Structure formats: structure tokens, C-alpha cells
Amino acid sequence: MRKKIVAGNWKMNLTLEEAKTLHKDINEALTTTNSKCDVYHFAPSIYLNSLIGNDQVVKTGAQNGYPAKNGAFTGEVSMQQLSGIGTQAVLIGHSERRQIFNESASFLKEKVDSALEEDLKIFFCCGESLEQRESGKFKETVIAQLKNSLFHLNSTDFSKIIIAYEPIWAIGTGKTASPEQANQMHKSIREAIAHAYTQEIAEKTSILYGGSCKPSNADELLNQPDIDGGLIGGASLKASDFLEIISTYN
């Protein structure tokens, strides 16, 4: 059975006190609930030290990390530094990092290798733009992102990767990815993994959906056969909404 995962990406939101309260509320709620999925909070790096705890249900992740171990990279935080404070996971390849910060496939590949060296769980994001979706080249686009930054890994290392599919064209555009469209892309990703590795590895890889999942559509989306959870944005900032999405797997 593939692991079901619900992860909240807080992006550049919340004050420290708001972050601590939200993290505490989710942890407390889950200690009394028999949740059948893993739960992660991807918080701003400056908050991680205040959120990490060994006795917590919710795992902590960083939204970004730099591949070099140390050096003259003002403002950056290394994978080694993240691991050193007990961070458990890191997002790599998020559409905002690709688009706003122009992170290339080769740079993301460096990040993947560095994170694996530090034993960080990798949530690797991939997805296509509206233009790429409408051109009909969306599958090729997404699979190329995997090939260029992930498929150099051996089977053992690849088994440590979680994929998060983000249909960028369905976020803030007024267009909507149907559950069937989302599942079809997840299926295509799984087929690409099977081609690059084995069917067994593909079947064991958790692939999350990251396209405007919220309480109103979570049940229909997250229970598609090839969708193994969600990378949640705005809905993860409100405890009641995030817990309702998590309850999809209870």
C-alpha cells in the first residue's frame, strides 16, 4: 500500500505565534484521531526551530533549501543546516520557485542530491502552465521535469521521493482541473516512473495533488485511484479546513 500524505505548504504566511498555534492545534487534534495518513507542515525556515518536536504527530518540512553545505550564499539556508535542527522534509521544484526564482532543472537536481545526502524526505513538485496544457504538451512537460531532476537517481534513492503534481493552469486562473484530469496526470507520472525504474517502484511511489484542494473537493480528488494525498496551500492555514481535508483518510 502506498502511503497517504496530506501536507500543508504555508508559503510566506503567518506570524510566529500564528504558526505555533496552528501547528499545536493540528497536533493536538490528530493525537485523538486515528488518522490513516502522514501529515506535514512546510513552514517558513525561520519558524522551523520553534515547531520541531520529536513527540509530534505532524512532521516538519522546509519550503526551500540550498544545495551547498556552506559558503558565501547570503540569505540561503543549506540542506545540512535544515537537517541539523531536525527538519524532516523539504519541498523541491515548487512552481513558484521555478517561475519567480528561475530555478532550473539542473539546479533542482543539485538540491535533490544534497537533500538525500542529509537524509531529508523530498517532496518533488512538477506541473505544467496554462500554455503548456492548452498546447497538448502537458504530459511531456511534466515527465521532462522528472527526467531532468530525478531520474538520475538509483532505485534506492528514488524510493525516498514523494511527487507532488501541481497543475499551474488550474491555480488562480478560473479554470479547474477535474478529478479525472488530475488522476490521469498522476497515472501518467506513475507510468513514467515504471518505465524509468520498475512497476513495483512506481506502485510504491506516493504522488500528491497540489492544485487548489480544499474541503469542498478533497473527498472527490484525494480518493482517485492514483492520487495519494494533497499538497495543500491556502486551506492549510486554517486548522478546521486542514483537518477536514485530513479526515478524508480517516
Automatic annotation (TrEMBL):
<dbReference type="GO" id="GO:0046166">
    <property type="term" value="P:glyceraldehyde-3-phosphate biosynthetic process"/>
</dbReference>
<dbReference type="GO" id="GO:0006096">
    <property type="term" value="P:glycolytic process"/>
</dbReference>
<feature type="binding site">
    <location>
        <begin position="233"/>
        <end position="234"/>
    </location>
    <ligand>
        <name>substrate</name>
    </ligand>
</feature>
<comment type="function">
    <text>Involved in the gluconeogenesis. Catalyzes stereospecifically the conversion of dihydroxyacetone phosphate (DHAP) to D-glyceraldehyde-3-phosphate (G3P).</text>
</comment>
<keyword id="KW-0413">Isomerase</keyword>
<feature type="active site" description="Proton acceptor">
    <location>
        <position position="166"/>
    </location>
</feature>
<feature type="active site" description="Electrophile">
    <location>
        <position position="94"/>
    </location>
</feature>
<dbReference type="Pfam" id="PF00121">
    <property type="entry name" value="TIM"/>
</dbReference>
<keyword id="KW-0324">Glycolysis</keyword>
<protein>
    <recommendedName>
        <fullName>Triosephosphate isomerase</fullName>
        <ecNumber>5.3.1.1</ecNumber>
    </recommendedName>
</protein>
<dbReference type="InterPro" id="IPR000652">
    <property type="entry name" value="Triosephosphate_isomerase"/>
</dbReference>
<dbReference type="GO" id="GO:0005829">
    <property type="term" value="C:cytosol"/>
</dbReference>
<keyword id="KW-0963">Cytoplasm</keyword>
<dbReference type="GO" id="GO:0004807">
    <property type="term" value="F:triose-phosphate isomerase activity"/>
</dbReference>
<feature type="binding site">
    <location>
        <position position="212"/>
    </location>
    <ligand>
        <name>substrate</name>
    </ligand>
</feature>
<dbReference type="InterPro" id="IPR035990">
    <property type="entry name" value="TIM_sf"/>
</dbReference>
<dbReference type="GO" id="GO:0006094">
    <property type="term" value="P:gluconeogenesis"/>
</dbReference>
<comment type="subunit">
    <text>Homodimer.</text>
</comment>
<feature type="binding site">
    <location>
        <position position="172"/>
    </location>
    <ligand>
        <name>substrate</name>
    </ligand>
</feature>
<comment type="pathway">
    <text>Carbohydrate biosynthesis; gluconeogenesis.</text>
</comment>
<dbReference type="InterPro" id="IPR020861">
    <property type="entry name" value="Triosephosphate_isomerase_AS"/>
</dbReference>
<comment type="similarity">
    <text>Belongs to the triosephosphate isomerase family.</text>
</comment>
<dbReference type="GO" id="GO:0019563">
    <property type="term" value="P:glycerol catabolic process"/>
</dbReference>
<comment type="pathway">
    <text>Carbohydrate degradation; glycolysis; D-glyceraldehyde 3-phosphate from glycerone phosphate: step 1/1.</text>
</comment>
<dbReference type="InterPro" id="IPR013785">
    <property type="entry name" value="Aldolase_TIM"/>
</dbReference>
<dbReference type="InterPro" id="IPR022896">
    <property type="entry name" value="TrioseP_Isoase_bac/euk"/>
</dbReference>
<keyword id="KW-0312">Gluconeogenesis</keyword>
<feature type="binding site">
    <location>
        <begin position="9"/>
        <end position="11"/>
    </location>
    <ligand>
        <name>substrate</name>
    </ligand>
</feature>
